[in-house]
Sequence to fold (449 residues):
Amino acid sequence: MVHIDEKLEPILAEVLRRNAGEEEFHQAVKEVLESLGRVVAKHPRYANHALIERLCEPERQIIFRVPWIDDSGQVRINRGFRVQFNSALGPYKGGLRFHPSVNVGIIKFLGFEQTFKNALTGLPIGGGKGGSDFNPRGRSEGEIMRFCQSFMTELHRHLGEYTDVPAGDIGVGAREIGFMFGQYKRLTNRYEAGVLTGKGLVYGGSRARTEATGYGATYFVQSMLATKKHSFDGKRVVVSGAGNVAIYAMKKITEFGGKVVACSDSNGCVVDEKGIDLAVVKEIKEVQRERIAEYARRKGSSARYIEGGSIWDVPCDVAMPSATQNELTGKDARTLVHNGIVALGEGANMPCTPEAVRVFQEAGVMFGPGKAANAGGVATSALEMQQNASRDSWTFEQTEARLANIMRDIHDRCAETAAEYGAPGDYVLGSNIAGFVRVAEAMEAFGVI
Ligand code: GLU
Fold:
């Protein structure tokens, strides 16, 4: 079992003390600190000048009130967040999440992860994350618009293409980005396309951004499989979730010859032995904004819906958890190992619990952690920023080719770093160290700030 190096133990103790109750943040920091022992052993200077302590403390945390009026005329209040975690490598960059579970600890864990993920892409982006405890489910288009406008009315003063560039995450897609961009433009009187990514194509969005996280995660798993002379061809795959990441992961897996037999939402999962029909999932989730149970109703006898069931009970060769944090537990991991899983790529941020990660690694399952495997979304956001800065727009093929290269590079950098630090095949260690070293070098150059 991995443990924290004794030099780093006081740092963790202090993080736990100063951020009491923020469990997901503790979990994310602990996982990174577990990997950093080997770095400080090899390069003791990284433990100087409280560099690691500074990395664990966000540069700025903004919490604000978001008042809005619902369709019945009642005033509602939500809480808005933006955690500007680290700007050593570029402007803060990371998505906005609208979900009732959002609180400062969740946003901090996501911002912390984002800092390493963004560093791994090799592109000039710092780390940040934001969102609100607003629940978009069941809200009308008018309510969503008024909420987004109110949220941006406060947030706009903290953003800028050189300062902080949000994008989408759970509950925030092209529609919400459109409402927020419109409000930003109106408030600032600036057509600053590079201030948000995930935009619509007619107003500065990038081709392939919608597909990028799911496609990128699939490319990453393909690279892992290739190291053991495997491929997706003929593999049974289970992808949890049915949102943007899951949909485009399923599409690319199918293109690579894999068969996706199950997907899910927070109510339950659907199993379709003929292979999940993506057109139906897209219609249900993106057009009708309905529950995944609808899939089984539409497909009749070929598919079954399991209300409240665990998708990880469905036997598969490859799993790609693409819903949310801690959705796959130690028990689920043991079931998957028992059923013969060979590889797993995290499409979501931190979907596997620490116990699950341990079970997979001990069983020799190839394990691609989110900060490497799902970096394709934010990498393509950085490509969107490049296109905005040069007032250019690239073809789908060009953009996807860049994405594929970036994912291959991330895979190789993680694999090489893991080998260099004496743990070949350990992508968790490789991604944490490779991400850390880039951020740390820039922070060192800046002195104590
Ligand atoms: N929310 C996505 C992530 O977790 C994308 C962020 C972005 O494009 O800025 O990486």
